[in-house]
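Thread: Newbie trying to understand structure tokens

Hi all, I'm a second-year student working on a class project, and my supervisor (Dr. K.) asked me to get a predicted structure for one chain before our next meeting. I've only ever worked with sequences, so writing a 3D structure as a token string is new to me. If someone could post the tokens and maybe explain what I'm looking at, I'd be very grateful. Here's the chain:
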Amino acid sequence: MRGISRLIVLFLIGAGLFYLVTEGDFNPQDAVKKVEKNLMTKDTEMESKSTPENFTDTIDLEGDLYSWIGDTSDKLIEELGEPVRKDSSPYGYDWWVYMDAQDKYIQFGIEDGQIVTMFATGNQLSIEPVQIGQSYQDVNSHFEFSNEVSVSEGLESYRFQLSDEELGVRPLVKLDKHTYMQLYFDTFTEKLSSVRVLSKDVLLKQRPYEIFYRGKLPEPPELSDEEWQEVQAGMEQQIFDITNVIRNRHKKSELSWDEPISEVALSHSKDMSDNNYFSHYSQNGEGLKDRLSEHDIYYFSAGENIAAQYTDGPAAVEGWLNSEGHREALLKDSYTHLGVGVYRYYYTQNFMEKP
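---
Reply by user tm_fold:
Sure, no problem. This is what the structure looks like when written as tokens:
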């Protein structure tokens, strides 16, 4: 499942290596085995009767962001103007990206001229009755989060099953019969970090949680290598932008994009995907220090975040934010530059403090 994710963090300081782990000595192979052991959950086809609905048909929501789902791209341009850029996605829609410096960041997913999903983070966003930065307890009082979210349509029945951890980090709520919302929380502050609103079809294509179903699941389109290159480039830029939005929220300096570092990050993501492994160390034993040295990149300190099998770039960043070591890299004061490399569903961030 793409919704189940893997991530590890590595820091380099000068010529020394420092691994951030919660306890004990770090062994990359053991760490990967431990992570993979927790990734055995698979999509399961429902063989029993359909699952009853757990929510009322409609939740009364105010605020501009919710009203966009189902509207046209023409109306979006009329109201907000042309986007900063348009990025391809692996799910059949294109992201239209709107930014206001580092205070607002919104992606609208457009498919066949219609808005089918959106992701938003930053400050001063109209998402009543909740707000970015609001406490988990307050948001939960509006939606009453549940471990099960179900949808039935005709003879087809689907039930998303959320673990307790997922319920605390990214609960899913049903807004109406065809619209759902993921709420991403910063578990270190217990505050709302971002929101994603999805149509039913987009949610079923992404499948970010364990799913039990009866019927047929919609599948994302098959992409050519050229189409994947466009998707990957878009996700790299999204990860870079959202990282700076989060750093701004925590009063940290803005990072500059670094193309040579991005090439290093991309090569590592591709290597992990091609050779089916997940580690800071390649199969020949080389780590970040070696990869940077091979490209003659000089630095005072450097760090690396990696992740795999997240639905997209924004989800990967929110995952890093909720892991202590990755969070430290995201918010480290001394870093000045960032390179991002995405290959399929493998994600690498290389941070750097440069002269």
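A couple of things are worth pointing out once you decode it. The radius of gyration is 20 Å. The longest helix spans residues 225-249. Feel free to ask follow-ups in this thread.
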